[in-house]
Design a protein that fits this description.
The chain is an alpha+beta fold. The chain contains two helices and three strands; from the N terminus they run αβββα.
């Protein structure tokens, strides 16, 4: 209830899930999100999240940013002087 920043994540996802422990009061979670019940060994989807496709421009931007970050990290591993 205190963490309201999850609203800011929704425009960047096709689906948004909350992962909670068994016994968590899932009734307090918003209907607009999916629910995953998880423990140390397993997880199960209790409620599927509705699909809301993000705009293609945003998707491309996110993929390119992810690829650049991965390439930069790989480059630093192979040559730490960079």
């Amino acid at each position: 209830r205190a963490d309201e920043k999850w609203h800011d994540y929704q425009p960047f996802t096709d689906q948004l899930y909350f992962a909670v422990a068994n016994g968590f009061p899932v009734a307090i979670l918003p209907e607009s999100c999916g629910i995953i019940i998880a423990d140390f060994y397993n997880a199960a989807i209790l409620r599927e999240a509705p699909v809301k496709k993000i705009h293609q421009t945003r998707r491309r931007s996110q993929i390119l940013r992810f690829a650049k970050t991965a390439a930069d990290r790989l480059s630093r591993i192979s040559d730490p002087r960079l």
